[in-house]
Amino acid sequence: MTVSPVQSGINVPSLPNVRKENGQREVFCGLTSIVWLHRRMPDAFFLVVGSRTCAHLIQSAAGVMIFAEPRFGTAILGERDLAGIADANEELDRVVSDLLSRRPEIRTLFLVGSCPSEVIKLDLGKAAERLNTRYNGSVRVLNYSGSGIETTFTEGEDQALHSMVPLLPSSDEDQLLIVGTLADGVEERFKKLFHGFGISNVRSLPPRISTDLPPIGKGTRILLAQPFLSVTARALISKGAKLINSIYPLGVEGSAQWMMEAAKAFGVNTHQVEQVISPLVNRGRIALAPFRQELQGKRIFFLPDSQLEIPLARFLCRECGMNLVEVGVPYLDRQIMAPELALLPENTVISEGQHVEYQLERVRSSFPDLVVCGMGLANPLEAEGITTKWSIELVFSPIHGCDQAADLAELFTRPLSRRSLLRWE
Fold it and tell me: Does the annotation list 54 as a binding residue?
């Protein structure tokens, strides 16, 4: 469903410098999001219906040893399944039955689509309906697509949360709903601050217990913690919730404004909010100062990968003094990104989508001090003498909040320091 700027209450700025590209892409698929989602909900299990390549990808990304008991796995489609000789649905039912008999603690089972399952048109939605009937409420079965055909790696979380929205109970009680996975310690700190403002009813999606779903209705105010949750946000809005327009809680400025906008939505006095967050802001700026000295004036180029690129660019430009050569994003949602876009310099070049060869040509011609990109491009660029930062590390690290601003900046100083130490005079 498309929500217009008027309906959502978002002011969308004009974007004269957006370059739209189509072509070969270099991004992780949405299966990678399982790595942080399975840690968030310990009573859930993510069953990828895919190939051995899918299994190796998730295993490598998670760094889980083969004898561990993680909360994810892969139902591997063999040659007989792909050729249509075997009934893939019967095989899937058998695998699910074996899994649930061995892991009775599972309360929510996500069937996750992959490129192979989508190529053979395996209907996981129907499979979820069938399994829900079979297990009659003892286990809740949901499905979503994590296919690289459909999603980049952070959009996998968007698809997973969207699959949970139809199950949310209805309630018009006033509440703040933080949407997006945060590190547990960071989330607890934010909730404590919101309680200090006088906002007592604060819930999260995804919840820490997969069956403890927050209610949704006209009294719900949505505060996005991550910028890659467009589909989920619109689904929640369609259920009556209202979106709080804000930049994202990356850096001191972003975190302070994020909390301030939430407080305004609940009618909290601005002075009261400032009293609570001023010590955090001052401490964050002091901690950030030495990293700003290292990053000031450096030129940075973002290749599209995580959809964190625009908030990170805003943070690095405004709080660390870096110069933006180009900011690439896999997909630009002009509505939920409007507050962030308004804070970028007017001449910022933004590229939406990817033609990897063209973008690499621009990287080589501009030769920035630092390139933020996926792991598949990092080593080739390093071999050419171009310093890189893995974008995936920024997703797996606790980087939200005033207290994490210095840690976030340090992630960008490390590759520059490494390059300086390795440079031969």
Answer: yes
